[in-house]
TrEMBL record:
Similarity annotation: Belongs to the CoaE family.
Top-rank EC class of the record's enzyme: transferase
Designated name of the protein: Dephospho-CoA kinase
Any one GO MF annotation of this record: dephospho-CoA kinase activity
Length: 206
């Protein structure tokens, strides 16, 4: 069963690629969904976050106030390190469980791990292919402003807080350029799917 990692910076079109790969039959394991799962009300991770960053990051209904937590750690590298030390191990365990479940269900299927923080946390995992969704920073800024309603300074700050494009591209086995329109991104994703087995064989033979 091919195990493919899909990553990309904020507003890179990664989710569009994941949805298209799912339409082709891939099983998508979504790291963001796993983060929300391990931070659910009453979870050990949420308790640890409250102990580390303050009980006021928890809403009255017991759910995490993500905006409050984000404001507390944004731009603070030490705080982000402490946050990751709490969240990443739980995400790793749950992602491995879901990947194992997918393997048991369809041993011949393709599993795609959709993960924003691949460079930061999972680059050395045994992926058979690493795919990077890529668009220039200015394109991503425009998307964040036009689609998500951020101000341009906020959009640029969000992009700057992540690893650089160069670091992401350095680990890529395949790059999907998403700077065009939706149809172009879909076509490039279809091309990747059609050549997936060949790309994996090429990588294995390096």
């Amino acid at each position: 069963m091919p195990l493919v990692a899909l990553t990309g910076g904020i507003a890179s079109g990664k989710s569009t690629i994941a949805r298209r790969l799912a339409e082709h039959g891939a099983t998508i394991v979504d790291a963001d969904a796993i983060v929300r799962h391990v931070q659910r009300p009453g979870s050990p991770v949420l308790d640890a976050l409250a102990a580390e960053f303050g009980a006021d990051i928890i809403e009255s209904d017991g759910a995490l106030n993500r905006a409050a937590l984000g404001a507390r750690v944004f731009g603070d590298s030490d705080a982000i390190t402490r946050l990751n030390a709490i969240v990443h191990p739980a995400v790793r365990v749950e992602s491995q469980r879901r990947i194992g479940e997918a393997l048991a269900t369809d041993p011949d299927g393709v599993v795609v791990y959709d993960v924003p923080l691949l460079v930061e946390a999972r680059a050395d995992d045994p992926w058979e292919l690493i795919v990077v969704a890529h668009a220039p920073a200015d394109v991503r800024v425009r998307r964040l402003v036009d689609i998500r309603g951020l101000t341009e300074p906020d959009a640029r700050a969000r992009i700057a807080s992540q690893v650089s494009d160069e670091e992401r591209l350095a680990i890529a086995d395949a790059v999907i350029d998403t700077s065009g329109d939706l149809a172009d991104t879909i076509a490039r994703t279809d091309e990747l799917w059609g050549t997936l087995a060949e790309r994996i064989r090429t990588r294995a033979g390096r």
